[in-house]
Amino acid sequence: MKRRAFLIRGLVAAGTFAAGPGEITGAEYRYRLAPATVLPPDIMKAPREVREAYRFAILNGETLRYIPCYCGCGSAGHTSNASCYLKDGSIATNLQFDRMSLA
After folding, report:
1. pLDDT at residue 27 tops 50
2. What is the pTM of this model?
């Protein structure tokens, strides 16, 4: 849960991203999300906040690559916070999800 809270706070602190399809808006934040239809069934069963984090990572992985992973998963090969959601080398046409954030 700490990783999700950190991600949301980081988004709020980073400011407003360009609006577009699939955006979430609120009094405190606005960011683009990938469509939920790209998520695999196991991630679709996760809580809303987890699904949003995965959807954010798909469209904003370059931003997450600047945020170090602080949960101790470096031994699993994670290079940044983006690695907690998508495997390194994952591309839009071949998304490879990391399930670590489901735990």
Report:
1. yes
2. 0.70
